[in-house]
């Protein structure tokens, strides 16, 4: 394999694929990126056996061929070369090395045999549809903060994506929960998605997918089966195994009888929560909300640091209620609210609270209270 490629083009593609590669691997080949040159393109593949990303960059191919090279090392080298540099890549099957030349710089990397690189087939993807990048970005950004990191509850370690086609306005809904909070966001159902199965997209896949979305302006092709999902962008294709588990019946934890409603300016509220929680050194960062007609009082206290109290004017006219929350969880939700108003629906101090945008019902958040 022998080719010349522009540094910026190679760096962009390497940036996409190298983040899939784990820093520590018990299988040496999984530390490598597969490089394949032919037909004026350099194709790059990287996998961790659960996730595969394929990208390509234009190149002047002198001699077609393929090799594998250490992904992170190659990325670091290319990243540190000057802008606008032309890179020569030369891999000989005889000595198992990749030589990279740029100007007066020369690097030699050890390669592993191409036939050791694992094949992760996409399989038969029976369900196909297209998603607007903005819609997919919104589904991810407004739910992924609630993905559980508890490995024992592996079925919560991702975003549950499913279609609701049996209602007046069919939607594609994304849901994530860690048992303390729940995020549910929906967008209009894309054509062709009505028969898709409910799938759980893993947390790592969600992170890699989110990076690629910002670099595309075109519609994203989504293909999926019961076990795999694939996202095709301008030049990159991301294929991932799905979490093999049953997502819980999340609708059961969304309360239906919360009759105490508060509407408050979201930024003022978030800033006040942030300020009063600074007094608490505890891990829970508990903050208490006291609601009386016309007033919302936020309080936090710590045996070591003292106490904090702040008042906000509201149009609340319901019963007096005191309820406590983890302030970090409360702020996570407040940061997802895109409109100026935040609407909170409560029942009592021990029941889950529903949070929404004041003028948009496409996103719903449920937060469990805590003792304060």
From TrEMBL:
Q: Name one GO molecular function term.
A: 3'-5' exonuclease activity
SUPFAM superfamilies xrefs: DNA clamp
Pfam families documented for this protein: DNA_pol3_beta, DNA_pol3_beta_2, DNA_pol3_beta_3
Which residue intervals define the domain DNA polymerase III beta sliding clamp N-terminal in the entry? Answer: 1-120
Q: Which residue range or ranges hold the DNA polymerase III beta sliding clamp C-terminal domain? A: 252-371
Give me the Gene Ontology terms describing cellular component.
cytoplasm; DNA polymerase III complex
Q: Please give the biological process terms from Gene Ontology that the record holds.
A: DNA strand elongation involved in DNA replication
Report domain DNA polymerase III beta sliding clamp central positions.
131-249
Matching Gene3D superfamilies: 3.70.10.10, DNA Polymerase III, subunit A, domain 2
Is DNA-binding a UniProt keyword of this protein? yes
Which residue stretches, if any, does this entry annotate as coiled coil?
none
Locations listed in the record: Cytoplasm
Mind listing the UniProt keywords for this protein, alphabetically? Cytoplasm, DNA replication, DNA-binding, DNA-directed DNA polymerase, Nucleotidyltransferase, Transferase
Report the principal subcellular site.
cytoplasm
Q: What InterPro entries is this protein classified in?
A: DNA_clamp_sf, DNA_polIII_beta, DNA_polIII_beta_C, DNA_polIII_beta_cen, DNA_polIII_beta_N
Give the multimer and partner information.
Forms a ring-shaped head-to-tail homodimer around DNA.
Tell me, in a sentence or two, what this protein's role is. Answer: Confers DNA tethering and processivity to DNA polymerases and other proteins. Acts as a clamp, forming a ring around DNA (a reaction catalyzed by the clamp-loading complex) which diffuses in an ATP-independent manner freely and bidirectionally along dsDNA. Initially characterized for its ability to contact the catalytic subunit of DNA polymerase III (Pol III), a complex, multichain enzyme responsible for most of the replicative synthesis in bacteria; Pol III exhibits 3'-5' exonuclease proofreading activity.
**Family classification:** Belongs to the beta sliding clamp family.
Quote the PANTHER family the UniProt record gives: BETA SLIDING CLAMP, DNA POLYMERASE III SUBUNIT BETA
Protein name per Swiss-Prot or TrEMBL:
Beta sliding clamp
Organism expressing this protein natively: Varunaivibrio sulfuroxidans
């Amino acid at each position: 394999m022998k080719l010349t490629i522009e540094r910026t083009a190679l760096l962009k593609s390497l940036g996409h694929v190298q983040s899939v590669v784990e820093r520590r691997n018990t299988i040496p080949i999984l530390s490598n990126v597969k490089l394949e040159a032919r037909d004026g393109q350099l194709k790059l593949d990287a996998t961790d056996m659960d996730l595969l990303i394929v990208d390509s960059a234009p190149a002047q191919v002198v001699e077609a061929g393929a090799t594998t090279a250490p992904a992170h090392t190659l990325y670091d080298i290319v990243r540190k070369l000057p802008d606008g540099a032309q890179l020569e890549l030369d891999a000989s099957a005889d000595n198992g090395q990749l030589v990279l030349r740029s100007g007066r710089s020369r690097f030699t990397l050890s390669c592993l045999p191409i036939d050791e690189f694992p094949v992760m087939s996409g399989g038969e993807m029976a369900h196909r549809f297209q998603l607007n990048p903005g819609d997919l970005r919104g589904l991810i950004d407004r739910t992924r903060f609630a993905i559980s990191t508890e490995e024992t509850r592996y079925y919560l370690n991702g975003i549950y994506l499913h279609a609701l086609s049996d209602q007046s306005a069919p939607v594609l809904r994304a849901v994530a929960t860690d048992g303390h909070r729940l995020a549910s966001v929906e967008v209009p159902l894309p054509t062709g998605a009505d028969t898709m199965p409910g799938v759980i997209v893993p947390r790592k896949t969600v992170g890699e997918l989110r990076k690629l979305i910002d670099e595309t302006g075109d519609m994203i092709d989504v293909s999926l089966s019961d076990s795999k999902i694939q996202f095709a962008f301008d030049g990159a294709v991301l294929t991932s195994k799905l979490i093999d588990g049953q997502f819980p019946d999340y609708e059961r934890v969304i309360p239906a009888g919360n009759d105490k409603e508060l509407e408050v300016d979201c930024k003022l509220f978030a800033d006040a929560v942030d300020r009063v929680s600074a007094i608490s050194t505890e891990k829970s960062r508990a903050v208490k909300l006291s609601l009386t007609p016309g007033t919302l009082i936020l309080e936090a206290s710590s045996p070591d640091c003292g106490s904090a109290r702040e008042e906000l004017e509201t149009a609340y006219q319901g019963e007096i209620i005191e309820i406590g929350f983890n302030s970090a969880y409360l702020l996570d939700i407040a940061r997802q609210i895109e409109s100026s108003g935040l609407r909170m629906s409560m029942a009592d101090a021990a029941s889950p609270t529903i949070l929404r945008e004041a003028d948009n019902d496409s996103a719903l958040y449920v937060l469990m209270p805590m003792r304060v």
